[in-house]
Every structure is written in C-alpha cells, then in structure tokens.
Amino acid sequence: MAYQEVKTTSYGTRVGRSFKGIGTGFLLFFGATALLWWNEGRAVKTDKMLDEAENAYVEMENPNKKDATLDGELVCATAVATTEDSLVDNQYGIGAKAISLQRKVEYYQWVEHSESKSEDKLGGKEVTTTTYNYRKEWVSRPISSDEFKDEAYRSKNFVITTVDAEEQWAENVTFGAYKLNESLIHRISSREDMELAINDDVLSLLNSSSQTAYERFYGVKNTVKEPEQTIVVSDSVKASEDSIQTAMANASNKKDYDYVHQAGNVLYYGRVPGSPEVGDVRVTFEKIVPAKVTIIAEVDGDTFKPFKAGNGKRFQTLVMGKKDAADIFESEHDANSMWLWVFRVIGVMLVIAGLKGILGFIEAILKVVPFIAGIFGWGVGVVCSVIGIVWSLLVIALAWLFYRPVIGITLLVLAGFFIWVFAFKGKDKLKELAAKAKKDN
Length: 441
Prior knowledge:
Blueprint: E1 3-9, H1 11-56, E2 58-59, E3 74-83, E4 86-89, E5 94-97, E6 100-120, E7 126-139, E8 166-169, E9 173-175, E10 178-179, H2 182-185, E11 191-193, H3 200-218, H4 235-249, E12 255-256, E13 260-263, E14 266-269, E15 281-288, E16 291-300, E17 303-305, E18 307-308, E19 314-315, E20 317-320, H5 325-365, H6 370-403, H7 405-440
Parallel strand pairs: 2-3
Antiparallel strand pairs: 1-7, 3-9, 3-16, 4-5, 6-7, 6-8, 6-15, 9-10, 11-15, 12-13, 13-14, 14-15, 16-17, 16-20, 18-19
Helix pairs in contact: 1-5, 1-6, 5-6, 6-7
C-alpha cells in the first residue's frame, strides 16, 4: 500500500513565498534573455566556423605515410585507430590491449518515488498530498533508505559490496603514421563486451566477503520478510534483463560460486543472478577496440589539433567508419541547427516562467477565493505566454541584426516594402475596384 503525507501551507506563508519568487522571476527573465542572445551568436559563429573549415580542408590521401607538406593544414582522413597499450583493471586482475576499458556498476535497491497533488482551500490555505511508492530497481549508486518516508521501508537497503565505476583510456592511439590527441581518442565508440577471465583465487575471496556481508544483513537462510509490493516492469527493461540473463546462462567463461558469479562480461554479486535481491551488485565490463574512423582536424607534426577559425571558434571531429567530408559537415550544420532550436525553446519557456514568477504574487493574494485566483491565474498565464513569446522573438530579431546585420537589414527592408505595398498600393487598388463596381451599377 502506498504511503501518503499531507502538508498544509498557510495563506500568509504562500503570499510571503510568492513575494520571494519575484526575485527569482527577474533572474529567470534576464537569464533567459541572455541565453537567447548568446544562442543566436553561438549558432552564427559556429556556422561561419564550419563554412570556413569546409572551404579550407584538404583530403589526406594516405594517412599511413607522414606528409610534411600537410603540416598546419586542416585535413579529412580515414584510417584504423589502434593501440599497443595494455590496460589493466587492478581490482579484478584483468586486462586487454584496447583503446579503453570501462566498468559499469549497478546496485539492486529499494527506490522511493513520490507524486504530489495540491489543492487550494477557501481562505488561502494549500493542502498538498504526497504519495510515496517503493520499487526495487537497478541503480547506479547505493541508496540510503534511512530517510524513506514510510517506516516500513527504512533500513531495507544494503549492498553486498561497493565498486567504483571506472574508465581507462589508452594514451597512445595511432592513426596510420600519426597519433590521435586525447579529445579525438575519447570520441571512438567501437564498444564491445569484454569477456572476463578472473582468477579463481580472486573469485573465492570475493565470494567469501560477499557471503559475510549477505549473512550479516539477511541471516544464513534469508528469513527477512520484505514488504509487500507490486512491481510494474516496462517491456524495454524486461527485455534488457532477459538478454543479460540469457547471455550469462550461455557464456563459455561461466563460473558460479555461492555469492559471486562470472559469465560473459558480467560479474554478479548475489545468490541467483536471475532472481535479484536487494543488495545484489552487477558489474559489467566493456572495451573499446581498434576500428576504422574518419577525422577532420589540423595536422600538428605527428599528431592533430583543433582547427581555429577566424572568429576564434575551434573545430575537430571524429566519426566512426569511412565518411565523406561533405556528409560530416552537413551533419555538423544539422546538429548546430538542432541546438539552436533547442536553446530557443528553452529560452522562451524560461522567459515565460520568469514573468509568471514576477506576477505570481497577485495570484497568491487572490488565493483567499480559489475560484477567482484560478481564473486570474489562467489569465496571467496567457498574458505571460504572449509577452514572453513576443519578447523572445524581439530578442532573437535584435540578435540577428547584431550578428547578421546584412541579412537582418535586408529582411527589415523587405518587410517594410511589403507593408508599404499592402498598406498603400492595396488601398489604391481597393478604391479602383470600388469605383469600377459603382460605374458598372
């Protein structure tokens, strides 16, 4: 059964809080305005930088041979990114010759979820009912249950062990006869499962410590009665769980101890991987392997560095596989346009939220009569939305004039011309039509 908490906020507290919200509203309004202005400039500068880079790059025909004539040139090249570096996970005594080793950790825990509903009462009070539900889930870090609202779920969480998530990257990754810099290396995404081969002695020690932790919390026979629960698992989560369990069951490197299990690229702390209990820990290992990649970057001796455009913006990129420079630049322009609109939408929403925060005190004062406050609040919302959109469009238009004066002025001239045509020529045309109609009659 869900746990509920009811909280009543007095009229005076609500009004006082709304006046405090005025300052926050102004901060949101001006911050959003600055965001809209900055976003237009960012997009313009990025487009100009990409255009400059697209006109400046040359094809590196053979990355397997150094070409001194290309030093300082922006190049597009395709080759296999590979390494001779050996990376080692010292905690588990495993390693591989790879571009990266990555360790992901998940904990099976009780998770508290809340949903609140507020209701205005005559006289200005607000009654907020918060419903708390609890579900077992795989999460990225241990959750303390000591502060759970429902006492029945407090102290229900524990973990058999804690493991730090970790990423290691090779320092020396070659690209034909050249080396990739750190930023380009970290863009390589040829990820594969890393099949484990953990030493039996290590697994035995892990099993012993896991058993001790498990029995300290559950007891030898796990007689602890869990609170009743109803868990709804989405199809995607269930499919992910099923695929992991299937892979573990069919793994050739499978090793099972009572409280530790190795299979495929998964090290599982717990009794039964297919039936997790609170406290179980799942550690997944992956590696990034050599792969063919395409880069656009400036040659710097035997390595690469970002291209610096005339406006100061820098650019370098790496994509997987063999790609044409034209396709890469098209994708970069598309991404720039996407972020332009993302920040525009965010900016407009923040402007509107800021205006609502500034005017919110009026609605709060009227909360004495919820019906009137509701009508007024709806009207304030509409007004703030209209003003917010108009203000945002004005800021964007002014930013266009500032960052793209030629286009902006051209658009204003065209707009003025059309207004003149419709306002004056249109009026003359109407008079002419009216006179003709009168003559015909």
